[in-house]
Amino acid sequence: MSEVSVLPLPMRELRDFEEKNTLLSWLSSCDHKQLGILYLLTALGFFIIGGCEALFMRIQLAVPSNHFLKPEAYDQLFTLHGTTMIFLVVVPTLLGLSMYLVPLMIGARDVAFPRLNALGYWLLLFGGVFLYTSIFFGNAPDMGWFSYAPLSEKPYSSLPGVDFWALGLFSIGIGTLASGINLIVTVFTMRAPGVTMKRLPLFAWMTMVNSFLIVFALPALNASLAMLLIDRGLHARFFTPDTGGSPILWQHFFWSFGHPEVYIMVLPAFGIISEVVPVFSRQPIFGYGFVAASTVAIALLSFAVWAHHMFAVGLGHAMDIFFAFGSMLIAVPTGIKIFNWVFTMWNGSIRFTTAMKFATAFLVEFTVGGLSGVIFAVVPMDWQLTDTYVIVAHIHYVLFGGTMFAIFAGVYYWWPKMSGRMLSERLGTWHFWTTVLGFNLTFFVQHMLGVAGMTRRVWTYPAMPHWGLLNMISTLGAFLLAGSTVLLFWNMLRSRRHGHIAGPNPWEAWTLEWATSSPPPLYNFAQIPPVHGPRPLWDLHHPDQQDRYLNK
Amino acid sequence: MALTMTTEASKAIQHAATFPVFTPHSDYARSIAGLSAGVLWTTLGILLLVMGLVSYAVHKFREKPGASTPKPVYGNVKLEIAYTLSFIVILGVISVFSIRAMESSDPPTHQENSLLIVAHQWWWEVRYPGTDIVTANEIHIPVNQPQQVGLRSADVIHDFWVPELGRKMDIIPGIENRSWFAADVPGTYLGACAEYCGQEHAWMRIRVIAQTPEDFARWEQEQLVVPATPTDGDAARGAQDFQQLSCASCHTIRGTAANERIGPDLTHVASRQTIAAGRLENTPGNLAKWLLEPDLVKPGCKMPNLHLPREQLNSLVAYLETLK
After folding, report:
1. Is A350 in Cβ contact with B74 (below 8 Å)?
2. Chain segment A461-494, per-residue pLDDT in tens
3. Contact A459/B61, CB-based, under 8 Å?
4. How far is A385 from chain B (nearest CA, A)?
C-alpha cells in the first residue's frame, strides 16, 4: 500500500459547488461535469423534438393513402428526425457521458483542454439551433439525412434547407471533432498514478477508441459538406453528372464518414454495457482483454465497410464482395462482445436494478440489430432488402434497441452520481417494460413490412395486403414508446425533489467515479485510492482477493 | 377528397403476394430467396442461442438473499477463441453461398438491352429498343424470356425494384446501369422506386405485366398502331385542345404534332391500368380528376394544374379515352 497517491489540492481557492450553480456559471463553465450535463440536457431537448417528429410520421403512416401530412412536410420531418437523432441526440448523449465520466474514471481533475471542451459543446448547440432556424427561413431540409446528390443540388433543391443542413452539420462536425481530440489527449495524458491503459475502465477504453473514430471520420463529412456547399453556392460540379461530376462520389465520401459514424454511436454504448453488466452481476468483466481488443478491431474494420450502403448502386461484384467481407468480419468482434457480456452474468449474483434490466434487454435487442446487419452484408439479400422498411427496423434495433437501451442503463446507473439522488426503481421498472413492449411493437413489424415490399422514405403507401395493419401496429407501438419516455422524464423530475440521497457509491461499484461524493466536488477527488487493477474499489474492499488479472 | 383505388386496377394489389421477397417468380429472384431462407434460419438460430443463454443467466444467477459475493471469473481464453473461430466459420459459409447467389441472381450483362427504362421524377418511361413502342409505369413482358433492362435517369437517383422478379438496381444520372429480370408465370407484379428521389417518391410505382408469348405479341401489335385522330364530337375537340393547350409541350402522341418527352408518352394511354405511376386506377372519372387537379391528386408532381374549364376537361377526357 505504499503507492497511495494523493492529488495535491488546487493552490487557488475554488468556489464551492453550490455557489457555482448559477445560470452564468453554467453558461460560462469549462468544468467537464457541467459541460457533460449541458450536453445531456441539450440531447434531451432534441430527443423530445426528434421523438415528436417520429410521432408525426407514424400518424401519417398509420393508414394507407393518409392525408394528415403533405409530402413536403413528411420529407422535412424524416430528414430532421434522422439528422436530429444522430447528430443532436445520440452523439451528444454519448459525448456528454464521456465528458462527465472519463476524467472521473481515470482520476483526473478535468479533461485535458477545458476551454476546447466548452467550444465543442457550444459549436454543437449552435449547429443544432442553426439547423432548426431553417424552419423560419423558408423551409427545413427535405433531401434526407444522407443528402444524396443530385437531389441535394440546386436544380432539385433550390430552397435554402440544404444549406442550413450543411452549415449546421459543419458546425456540429467541428465541435464533435474538438471533443474527440480532447478525449484522446485526456485518456493519454491525464490518468492518475496507477491507472495504466490495461487498467482503464472499459467505458473509458471505448470512449478513447471512439474518439479516434471521430477524429478520422468527421473530417470526411466536413470535407464533403464543403464540396456540397461549393456546388450549391459557387456552381461547382463535384456531384452533378453534367460536366464531369459524380453523384456516386458523394455516396463514397458520405458513407466513408457515415459508417464509422454508426460505430461512433455504438462503441460508447458498448462501454456503458461493459460497466453496468459487471457491477450488477457482481463479477469482473469476462475477458477484459478480448472486450478491449475487439473494440480496436471494430474501429479499424469500420473504415472498410462503407460501400455496404451502396450494394444497389451497381459498383460491380468485385467491389461488392470486398465490402461484404469487411462487413462480415466486423460481426466477429461484435459477437465476441455479446458473448463476453453474457458470460459476465454467468456465475454472477445478478441484481436486477433498472439499469441492469436495460442492459440485459440490450443484449437481446442489439443482437437482433446485429444479426439483421449480417443480413445486409449478404449482398444478394441486400439487393432485395436495402431501402425497404427492413433497413428502418435494422437501424432502430441498433440505435434504439442497442444504443438507447444502453443509454437508459447508463442514465439509471450514473444519475445518482450526477444528481446525488436515486431514481425510483418502481417507476424505472414501469419505464423498462413499457419501453421494451413499445420498442418491439414499433420496430419488429417493420421487418415484415420491408419483406412485404414497403420501401422507406415514402410519405404514404397504397393499401397492399396487410400494410395497413402492420403500419397501424407500428404507430401504436410508437405512442407507447413515447409514453414510456414520459415515465423516465417524470422519474427524473421526481428524483430531483424526492429521490433518496445516493451517497458516494450506491451500487457498490468499483471504478474511480464512485470513490468521490455524489455529485462530485468541483475538484473531483480530494484523494484518489490506490489503483492496482481495473477495479480499484474492489481491491480496496477485498484486500485478500485483489484482482490479479492484468495487474502488471 | 377520397382518392381510393376502386376495383379493377386494385385487383392486382389485392392479389399481390404478401411477402414478395419470398415469393420469387424468376430464377434471379429464386436464387436470392433460397439464400435468404438459409441465412434467416441461421441468424434465427444464433438469436435463439443468445436469448437462451441470457434467459438462463437471468434465472440461474439472480442474486439470492444472504448469498456471499461470488468468486470472480476473469475470463476463459479457450472459450473466447472457440467462439471467435465459430463466428468466422459461420460467416465464411454464409459468404460462400452469398457469392454463388450473386452470380446467379446478377449475371453479366451485354451491350444489347431488351428494354430501356428511363426514370423521371416521378414516373417511369419504358422503351422497347428497335420498335416505336413507348409506355409508362407499366412494363409488358413475355413470360420466360429474361429481360436485360438498361436503366437511365432523367434527373436524380432512382431505383428499379420488382421484388418477385429480381434484384433492385439503382439508376444513376450520367450512367447506364444494366440488370436482369424475368417472370415465369403470367400475371401482374408490383414494384416501386426504392431510392428516395424527392416529394413523390411514394407514388413512383411499377407494374410488370407478364403475358404469354401470344398475348404479348398481340399487345405489341396494338401498341405499334398509330391511333387515328377522332374527327367529330367531344373527342375531336379534345384532340384540338390537346395540341393548343400546353399538353403537347410535354407529351407525345404518335401521329400528331405532339412529340415531347418531358411527360409520359400518351399514344396508348387508355390501355394502361393506372394513372400517375400507380396513384389512381385508370378510369374516365379518375382521368378527369387527374387532369383537373394534378397538384391535389399527387402533390408536388410536375404536371401543372391548367385550371381547365368543364367543357375542355370533358373533351380532353373523351379524346384520351380513344387512345386505347
Report:
1. no
2. 999 999 999 999 999 999 999 999 999 999 999 9
3. no
4. 8
At B16 the pLDDT is: 86
Residue A163: domain span: 35-545
Tens digit of each residue's pLDDT (9 = 90 or more) over A295-342: 999 999 999 999 999 999 999 999 999 999 999 999 999 999 999 999
Rg of the Cα atoms in chain A: 23
CATH class of B233-321: mainly beta
Q: Which domain CATH number covers A132?
A: 1.20.210.10
Sorted by where each begins, the domain ranges of chain B are: 21-64+71-105, 233-321
In a domain, A2, yes or no: no
* CB under 8 A, 24+ apart: contacts of A532-537: A532/A3, A532/A194, A532/A199, A533/A199, A534/A198, A534/A199, A534/A200, A534/A201, A534/A202, A534/A284, A534/A285, A534/A288, A535/A284, A535/A510, A535/A511, A536/A194, A536/A510, A536/A511, A536/A512, A537/A505, A537/A509, A537/A510, A537/A511, A537/A512
B16 with A465: Cβ contact below 8 A: yes
pLDDT digits (tens, 9 = 90+) for B174-223: 999 999 999 999 999 999 999 999 999 999 999 999 999 999 999 999 99
* Distance (Å) from the alpha carbon of A537 to chain B's nearest alpha carbon: 14
Nearest CB neighbour to B83, from listed A313, A314, A336: A336
Q: What is the mean pLDDT of residues A215-241?
A: 95
Residues of B in contact with A453 (CB under 8 A): 16, 19-21, 163, 190-192
Say if the Cβ atoms of A247 and B172 lie within 8 Å.
yes
Render pLDDT for A83-110 as a digit per residue (tens, 0 to 9): 999 999 999 999 999 999 999 999 999 9
- Are the Cβ atoms of A464 and B193 closer than 8 angstroms? no
Pick the more confident residue, A374 or B13: A374
Q: Which residues of B touch A339 (CB under 8 A)?
A: 50, 53, 80, 83
pLDDT of residue A550 exceeding 60: no
| Residue B88 to residue A332, Cβ atoms within 8 A | yes
Cβ contact A381–B32 (<8 Å):
yes
Local structure of B274: helix, strand or coil: strand
Structural domain includes residue A366: yes
Distance between A515 CA and the closest CA of chain B, angstroms: 20
Question: Quick one: which of B222, B170, B201 has its CA closest to B277?
Answer: B201
Q: What's the structural domain count of chain A? A: 1
Q: Which residue has the cell 434547407?
A: A161
Instruction: Sort out which chain A residues have CB atoms less than 8 A from B43's CB and list them.
Output: 371-372, 374-375
DSSP string for A349-405: -B---HHHHHHHHHHHHHHHHHHHHHHHHSHHHHHHHTTBHHHHHHHHIIIIIIIIH
The answer to whether position A181 is within a domain reads: yes
Q: Which of residues B159 and A23 earns the better pLDDT score?
A: B159
pLDDT for the residue numbered A68: 96
Query: Within a domain: residue A436?
Result: yes
CATH for B21-64+71-105 (3.40.190.10, 1.10.287.90, 1.10.10.10, 3.30.470.20): 1.10.287.90
**How much is the pLDDT for A19?**
53
